[in-house]
Please model this.
Amino acid sequence: MRNQIENHQFVSVGEEIDFFRNVKSEPLGYLIYFSEVRYCLLRMPKVGEQQQMGFLKKKVRMVNKFFGVHWDFIHYMEQDFEYLDEQYFTREKQHFPVYAPPETSYLDPKFFTSHDLLWARVKAMQLFAKYLKKAQLGMQKQKRKGLGEAHPLVLHWTGSKTALVELIYALQHAHAINDGHEDIAKIVAGFEQLFDVKIENVYKTYGEIRARKDKKARFVRTLWEQLLKQMEEEDGLTNH
Model:
């Protein structure tokens, strides 16, 4: 691409602007992005979760600082303004680039403008910001997984399955789960997973509960009575 531009005469200022603003910035942006990722992988601490997360946070601060320093140019580009394009993206208005990585200390004046490297860097940092966010989320997820494996929470339903079905229907009718929009089968599946229990013949069991001649919702009533009793006992202890 560089050799082609050195031997190519742009037919108009607009064509030159289009090349340095839209064409060159794409591959150069990815080159800068992959360089940042490579550096990140090479320099990140190999052990120590806190040290690794601290390294990523430092990189995040670096990215945010870059966006803060160049916010006016980024705003100009994101709004698709064009009134400064001739100054930013033509070699006639050329001066040493606003952003220049170390390897560009000796730039070929035929292949850069004042802002094409900066625009490529902006694109790279946008990609790198997503990479850092994904890396942080991955570490947090791994941490939660590790905590779960170290301290697994095991719950067992020790009441009757009929009582559990009664509770499930009570919660569903009270719109206490997903605002009442979830069907019974999915709620049952959730409780089966939560309590590691198999609930069979749910609809038949509910029919039997409805067919009771006295106190249809026995388990829910018992829950209410036991909770009220416990609170009254606690209130009594408090008053004493």
